[in-house]
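Hey, resending since the last one bounced:
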Amino acid sequence: MTLGEKFLKTSMIYFIVGITMGALFTVKPVHDFVIQSPIFAGAHSHVNLIGWVSLGIIGGIYMMIKDKPMHSEKIGNTGFWLLNSGIAIMFILMIIAGYIGSSLAIEGKGAMIEAETAPYMILIMVFGIVIAIGAYLTVYNLFKTMSK
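The structure tokens again:
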């Protein structure tokens, strides 16, 4: 499977996850729960915008230039795996932190939210950096490939 195909196929998985999440958010009891924590909205937007849209665009670009010799297959694959591991792990962490935040808000323990979610927020930041490194490598590889 080419790198472009990997990006496109993976983006379709994120599309299904994002659409499913959005549909679930319309169910009244779920909606009433998730609106208690803005972290759920962050999870939804990250899986859609980075996972579905950005990876889909990257895959499309790789497909458009598939006849050019790739600058580095290794850099391309490293970027792919950093982006995907970052997106997936960040998404899971955001769901957990959102659940904790919403649960505490509903229990009337809003003052505890920041302290209880802090470890997750630190990890979310770390995996945000992983995503950024994956994006930098991917753009570098695409730029060098297109410049040939």
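The CA atoms of residues 86 and 129 lie 8 Å apart.

Sorry for the duplicate.
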